[in-house]
Design a protein that fits this description.
The complex is a heterodimer of chains A (about 250) and B (about 475). With about 250 residues, chain A is mainly alpha-helical. Chain A is about 50% helix and about 0% strand. In chain A, β1 and β2 form a beta hairpin. Chain B has 15 helices and no strands. The chains are: A mainly alpha (about 250), B mainly alpha (about 475).
């Protein structure tokens, strides 16, 4: 009798999952091709969807909201930090991007408190102001020189906001966590065509920029915490942690 | 001893060897994988052609293989005394089972490092290899049910557990491959729902093997047969199965899916804790009442499993609470949960089982010196628990901090970013080293030819007085 009850429970649970009425969307043929590439390169060994996968790289459920197709193609074909370079054509990289775009529409992959929308609009400007203020208080001429170069030599056009750039430029606050000194200096010297042009920095200027970028990485937490908007609608940060889906 | 008995004994030893080899491969892949988290080192390893995308599936595949093969070894040990003489058919199926699984293991080793992969979690190897695994499993099932018969629920609870696990595995293993159907593959959310249902129940299947091994070894060591027929034992079976069916849901709280599945998972997951902790405690208490020197390592690991079970159940209940789950989802807390249960519960039980079975092998060979329960081994076992506890604790701490800061749109604190890779590496490698020393000594015993002289261990623990 016990076994029959248990089998019935298993069958019931299975049918609940198999016949779930919540609607889903099938992938387009291009996105399905992107998914095949995702599998064949075993991207899930380092990346996650909805928290499932390896933890060496970030969760990519909403990755398509954070970077555009050109940036993704660069990452895939040139690698970044421990992420290897893959031998993918432009069409293949585009297919992977279509797959990520499709995943982005399914929901939110990570729990994040909803922040005040009005203040979020000025977040990047306030973040840069905080960077200026903190750097000015430092007794470090290299960091100050690097900040001035960043502001005056056009870096700000793409890397501003420093995170979530609309131009798809890298988040300079988190670059030191992922790239070695040699990798950063290489980019500072040669740029990353076609998106990032050659910088024309002299050796000394590259050292200043490197010092500035490392300083940004070290102070990432405090800089963001300083200018982070409050939760939306006056709610507490912890009172609205979701039980089920994050969105 | 008749030739048929020798066949069943040899089968047990074969699967013990397979389990030990699997855990060595899992350790090597895991140890190399940990190094990728150290800044700068990962890039150098990648330049040498050692890819994390190969190491991770190697580690997870052979860690799962270790648990399944260890469980199968215990089942074969049971069949030694209850299976009678192995028929010609039994022997033929056993040969094919071993051959198919050996081919599967070699195929995994020969394909993953070259990028031939399915790209899936836990089933990272090419789907063609699954055919060999499944075929070998069906042969194992045939041999098992030929002995226990269809009315296996009248036997001790561990036989029922194994029987359910054998059938459960077949179903869930097939379910793991539904993604090969075009309709499922092209709908990633449906695939995620099925994938985590199947993965969770696959883990439930091998947990049943381990719990069955726990009951069986506990009964053999203590000599007390009552527990395996007790109401508590069957209550655990029922609750454990219910959890196997639904508990995966705490991985899928946050994917688009009907809420009823998630509520069922949440409520059922709260029930497992009390019963399971009680059972492990009871068994460890039974075992500790008998003092025999060649059971010392066995007793140590059963006691360890008791404490680990309580600790990991506490963690599991916490992370099954949906808001907490949301905060730590996708962080190292999940790794802590998976590794803590695989190392602390499943592996500790199997270490106990294998040490006990190897003790029998040594005794059968007429060797006089007990090399399993030396003072050196005792220190290795203690160090293993210490390193593993530090590893799991650190993963919990770092994952919790990452989850809490992530929720607030903040990056992890700088001190965590700097220290975490090294703490992970030190505790992980320390754990791996202790397991390697343990397994190394057992491998030597498991592969030693009968009749060979056992070395004298100068630091051997003397038997308790009056034993």
């Amino acid at each position: 009798m016990l076994m029959l009850v248990l089998i019935a429970c298993f069958a019931g649970q299975s049918f609940l999952v198999y016949l779930d009425p919540l609607p889903t969307e099938s992938l387009s043929s291009e996105a399905a091709q992107g998914r095949r590439i995702w599998h064949s390169r075993n991207c899930q060994s380092c990346h996650q969807f909805y928290g499932f996968g390896g933890f060496l790289g970030p969760d990519l459920t909403n990755g398509a909201s954070r970077f555009g197709p050109q940036r993704l193609e660069r990452l895939l074909t040139e690698g970044s930090g421990v992420m290897p370079a893959f031998d993918l054509s432009h069409d293949e990289a585009a297919a992977v991007y279509e797959f990520l775009k499709a995943m982005d529409t399914t929901g939110q992959g990570q729990a994040k408190v909803e922040l005040d929308e009005a203040q979020m609009k000025s977040f990047s400007r306030r973040l840069f102001a905080a960077i200026r203020e903190e750097a000015a208080q430092l007794d470090d001429p290299q960091v100050t020189a690097g900040l001035n170069l960043f502001a005056m030599r056009g870096c700000r056009e793409c890397h501003f906001p420093v995170s979530g750039s609309l131009a798809g430029a890298a988040d300079l606050l988190s670059v030191p966590a992922h790239l070695s000194r040699d990798q950063i200096m290489l980019v500072l010297k040669h740029g990353q065509p076609p998106l990032m042009p050659e910088t024309g920095f002299s050796h000394e200027e590259r050292e200043h920029m490197y010092a500035f970028i490392v300083w940004l990485g070290r102070n990432h937490f405090s800089l963001v915490e300083r200018v982070l908007p409050p939760p939306a609608n006056g709610s507490g940060r912890w009172s609205n942690v979701p039980w089920w889906e994050f969105r | 001893m008749s030739s048929a008995d020798r066949v069943r004994c040899y089968a047990t030893l074969t699967f013990v060897r397979g389990a030990l080899v699997s855990v060595v491969i899992a350790l090597l892949a895991g140890a190399a994988g940990v190094l990728f988290y150290i800044p700068g080192l990962g890039v150098r390893l990648a330049d040498l052609g050692i890819g994390f995308s190969a190491l991770r599936p190697l580690h997870t595949t052979f860690a799962s293989a270790w648990i399944f093969l260890g469980g199968v070894a215990v089942v074969h040990h049971y069949l030694q005394s209850h299976g009678g003489i192995a028929s010609k058919g039994d022997r033929r199926r056993l040969r094919w089972q071993v051959l198919l699984w050996a081919i599967a293991g070699l195929a995994v080793l020969g394909t993953l490092p070259f990028g031939i992969t399915s790209g899936r979690e836990y089933m990272g190897f090419h789907p063609a290899i699954s055919l060999a695994i499944l075929a070998g499993w069906l042969l194992f099932a045939w041999n098992f049910f030929r002995v226990v018969g269809p009315r296996f629920w009248h036997r001790p609870v561990y036989v029922t557990m194994w029987a359910v696990a054998v059938l459960f595995f077949i179903y869930t293993f097939v379910e793991q491959h539904l993604w090969l159907l075009p309709g499922i593959f092209s709908d990633p959310i449906v695939d995620l729902r099925l994938q985590w249902k199947a993965t969770g129940t696959l883990i439930g299947s091998f947990n049943l093997f381990v719990y069955g091994a726990l009951y069986y070894i506990g009964e053999q060591v203590s000599g007390d047969r009552r527990y395996a027929h007790s109401k508590t034992a069957y209550a655990l079976l029922a609750v454990g199965l219910l959890n196997s069916f639904t508990n995966y849901g705490h991985h899928t709280y946050h994917i688009p899916q009907s809420e009823i599945v998630k509520w069922v998972s949440f409520v059922v997951s709260l029930t497992e804790s009390i019963i399971l902790a009680r059972v492990v405690w009871d068994i460890a208490r039974q075992v500790s009442q008998r003092h025999r020197p060649h059971f010392e390592v066995t007793r140590f690991f059963l006691n360890s499993a008791r404490w680990w079970t309580c600790a990991m159940l506490f963690s599991a209940v916490l992370i099954s609470i949906p808001p907490l789950n949301g905060l730590i989802h996708g962080t190292q807390v999940v790794t802590a949960h998976a590794m803590g249960t695989e190392i602390g519960i499943d592996s500790m039980v199997l270490f106990a089982a294998i040490s006990w079975m190897l003790g029998e092998v040594i005794a059968r060979r007429g060797c006089k010196i007990d090399v399993l329960s030396t003072a050196r081994m005792r220190w290795v076992c203690i160090a293993l628990n210490v390193f593993a506890a530090l590893l799991i604790l650190w993963l919990h701490v770092s994952g919790s901090i990452v989850g809490l800061t992530r929720y607030q749109h903040l990056p992890p604190p700088e001190w965590l970013r700097i220290t975490s890779p090294y703490l992970f590496a030190v505790t992980g490698l320390g754990t791996a080293l202790c397991i390697a020393i343990l397994i190394g000594s057992w491998l030597r015993l498991a592969f030693r030819k009968p009749g060979s002289v056992m070395p004298i261990e100068p630091d051997r623990v003397p038997p308790p007085a009056g034993d």
